[in-house]
Specification:
This protein starts with a helix and ends with a strand. The protein is globular, with a radius of gyration of 26 Å. With 756 residues, the protein is mainly beta. The strands form 7 sheets. The chain has a 22-stranded antiparallel β-barrel. Strands 1-2-7-8-5-6 form a 6-stranded mixed β-sheet. A two-stranded antiparallel ribbon has the order 3-4.
Length: 756
């Protein structure tokens, strides 16, 4: 592929040469200035940037909006697939806060913390097709005060869908590429001027795993409508997603050295070998199961040295339905907005475990963690202006009913598994535990935005109460009971001051609290009953204080921002493990001290004319633990004081050169991330890496509603071998751990886009 890389890079470089004039074609879904690569949050009292739909369409079709934001300052994004959609591997951290400590919404609809465990929301890649995202807004600090989130200690990501237009049109896209990737997208739009308008879209995306045996596929339908009612309007959104993806094997540094980056699970094509390794593991006593085939011996086939080197198969299965209905209406001097939503999820995470035999004399079985979630919610706001005060207040309520279970299913025989890990499992032979969780959330906010000449001052606060309840169907050694987190006053203060028409200063302070979550695999209930009873009255929710100060500059050629921040993170919660994570032993959650973060971030977009632009960002982050970790009886478990927080690179550097004319367009992007630790004591790490992606494309007028577009994308252009995700199976105190995922190699995709 080296010759192709050279040709591709040379072609993209040619595309980056200035043309006679810049003419970015208007897109019916574009909602921001197409000449700006990144829109800096002018007038905001905190660090904010926005990406438009153009920043997604320049990437490979189907790419997650999370991958698009990785070029922004202080954003650390990882995924083991080229699109950033594979949920077991997808991680986003901002300023040292992990994904569970960030807030996510789609058109205001809360997505929870987008955890793989699926206990309070869903991943954005299952909520909307990337082609239907109009704006992605990133707040690196504690985020917007009105965000429907009770876990945003750190930043917030707000995804805003495109509005339907008053045209009759059909947008289509076809993609084919590496790993037998096939993707189709179609969107039909209908509407009248000043009247009702809507669109309906469907996507199908399938690809083989880039290594090993398996497939990852998604089918999704989105629909959105807007109905004007005089000065008011009603908006509606409906989405259905069906995702099934077979997993890659978690690796350790030792496994990478011994087996290579391309090592993976056995997969359906190697069922016989998976049976052999499971038999040997049982004969050796490694899995604790009853030996079923003593003649298999006790010597693993080279290069395997452990039952955990490879499993038969594993997968993540998710089906989601979302429906939302909103009203925006002026009432006298105020504007009222209200939206109700419904979310239903059915999910299973499957694993072919050699640690439990099937009753069919097969030395392994299918272990599942099963999710059945149903959320109903309502949120609204009132906005009005009195003199130089822009006043707003909002309220959010959600009821979340979540059923979670751990079950085991039998393989049919030693020669035929009789089960496909891409299908939902049925007819279990054993349920280890099952719980019904209920979470009731009430949150409010009040804000006053004061305009004083060149100065803007924001004063506000939010508060919430979250009640969590766990009711066992089958206890299975896990906890039940009730716990509550409450903080009615979380202040948000900020100011912005215009030095001139191009330059402004901004600064602010935000206090935030993260509510407890309801789950058997994370949060206060992920322990034994005795463990929960010991912590339920004393456990404190995590809290953060964020201070930030910065400056912005904007003119017709340059758009940039610089900022510094200080964060004090208190009451850090850590699940003290009682065994290997893959086995599923319960942890004991406890407060283990504070974290301090200081950092610097900068980003700039230089428009050189002729369609040529340069964007660059740099982030420095120093996030450290302030305390050692002790258990409940005072024994020190880990000497973490002064150590760098796991998965927090100190340096992030991103840059891209892009070109866009009437016909030819292209982009080359570089992404550097420094060393990352995956143990709390910092004795194990993965090295820094530089990755390059590139795009080249051509548009031509075929007499249709939009130009026909041909686009070629390359991810990991120079085919670098590297570790993408760390912490896929949690983090340990010391020593190598099977918690790493290899990044995808060079992948090439070709797309055709036509608008009728």
């Amino acid at each position: 592929m080296r010759s192709f890389t050279s040709l591709f890079l040379a072609s993209t470089a040619l595309a980056a040469l200035p043309a006679y004039a810049q003419s970015v074609p208007s897109d019916a879904t574009d909602t921001t200035d197409a000449s700006e690569i990144v829109v800096i949050g002018r007038g905001e009292t905190r660090q904010v940037q926005e990406l438009s739909t153009n920043d997604l369409t320049i990437l490979a079709a189907g790419t997650s909006p999370l991958k698009a934001i990785e070029k922004l300052p202080s954003v650390n994004f990882q995924s083991a697939d080229p699109f950033g959609n594979y949920e077991w591997s997808t991680r986003v951290t901002i300023r040292g806060f992990n994904q569970n400590q960030l807030g996510f919404t789609l058109d205001g609809i809360p997505l929870g913390d987008m955890t793989y465990g699926n206990n309070n929301g869903l991943h954005v890649s299952r909520a909307i097709s990337p082609e239907n995202i109009g704006i992605t807004r990133v707040s690196q600090g504690a985020g917007s005060i009105g965000t429907q989130s009770t876990n945003n200690l750190g930043g917030t990501l707000e995804f805003i869908s495109v509005d339907p237009k008053d045209v009759l049109g059909l947008d289509t896209g076809l993609t084919y590429g590496s790993s037998n990737t096939k993707r189709g997208f179609v969107r039909l739009g209908v509407g009248t001027k000043d009247g009702p308008r809507a669109y309906f879209s469907g996507q199908y995306h399938t690809a083989d795993k880039w290594k090993g045996d398996g497939e990852q596929k998604t089918m999704m339908f989105n629909a959105k409508g807007i109905m004007p009612l005089g000065r008011a309007s009603i908006d509606a959104y409906v989405s259905y997603s069906d995702r099934a993806e077979q997993d890659y094997q978690d690796l350790s540094l030792e496994m990478i050295d011994r087996l290579g980056y391309d090592w993976d699970n056995f997969g359906p094509a190697n069922y016989e070998q998976a049976i052999l390794v499971a038999d040997i593991a049982a004969n050796r006593g490694d899995t604790g199961t009853t030996p079923l085939n003593p003649s298999a011996g006790t010597a693993y086939p080279s290069p395997i040295t452990s039952a955990d080197d490879a499993y038969y198969d594993a997968s993540g299965l998710r089906k989601d339905t979302i429906a939302a209905l909103g009203l925006t209406a002026p009432l006298g001097a105020v504007t009222v907005k209200v939206k109700g939503y419904y979310h239903k999820n059915d999910g299973q995470g499957t694993w072919g475990t050699p640690y439990v035999n099937s009753p069919t004399s097969v030395p392994m079985s299918v272990r599942t963690t099963e999710y059945d979630l149903e959320r109903n919610g309502l949120f609204g706001s009132v906005n009005g202006t009195i003199a130089n005060h822009d006043l707003s207040a909002g309220l959010w309520y959600e009821n979340n009913k979540f059923n979670q279970a751990r079950r085991f299913y039998a393989y049919a025989s030693r020669t035929n598994p009789g089960r496909d890990h891409l299908d939902f499992m049925k007819s279990p032979f054993y349920t280890q535990w099952e719980f019904n969780f209920t979470t009731d959330t009430v949150q409010y906010y009040v804000q006053d935005k004061i305009s004083l000449g060149d100065a803007t001052i924001n004063i506000g606060w939010k508060g919430f109460q979250v009640n969590n309840e766990s009711d066992p169907v089958i206890a299975g050694g896990r906890a039940s009971g009730k716990i509550r987190s409450r903080d009615w006053f979380q202040p948000h203060l900020g100011a912005a001051y215009k030095l001139n028409s191009n330059t402004e200063l901004f600064g602010g302070f935000t206090q935030a609290t993260r509510a407890f979550t309801s789950s058997t695999t994370s949060g206060p209930f992920s322990t034994t009953q005795a463990g929960f009873d010991a912590i339920k009255n004393d456990l404190k929710p995590e809290q953060s204080d964020t201070y930030e100060l910065g400056a912005r500059y904007n003119d017709n050629r340059f758009n940039g921002t610089v900022g510094i921040y200080y964060v004090n993170f208190r009451n850090r919660l850590l699940g003290i493990s009682t065994g290997a994570g893959i086995v599923g032993n319960p942890a004991v959650l406890q407060n283990v001290g504070d974290v301090r973060a200081i950092g610097f971030e900068a980003a700039g977009d230089l428009r050189l004319g002729g369609g040529l632009s340069i964007f660059a960002s740099y982030s420095y982050n120093d996030t450290t633990y302030r305390d050692d970790v002790f258990n409940a009886v005072g024994t020190r478990l880990a000497a973490t004081k002064g150590k760098t927080v796991v998965d927090t690179p100190k340096h992030l550097i991103r840059g891209e050169v892009s070109y866009d004319s009437d016909s030819l367009f292209g982009r080359v992007g570089a992404n550097y991330m420094s060393k990352r630790y995956f143990t709390y004591t910092n004795d194990q790490s993965v090295p820094g890496r530089v990755l390059l992606d590139a795009t080249i494309g051509y548009r031509f007028d075929a007499g249709l509603r939009k130009p026909v577009e041909i686009q070629l994308n390359a991810t990991n252009l120079f085919d670098k071998k590297y570790v993408s995700t760390i912490g896929s199976n949690g983090f340990g105190n010391t020593g190598d751990n099977q918690t790493l995922l290899a990044g995808a190699p060079q992948q090439i995709f070709a797309s055709l886009k036509v608008g009728f």
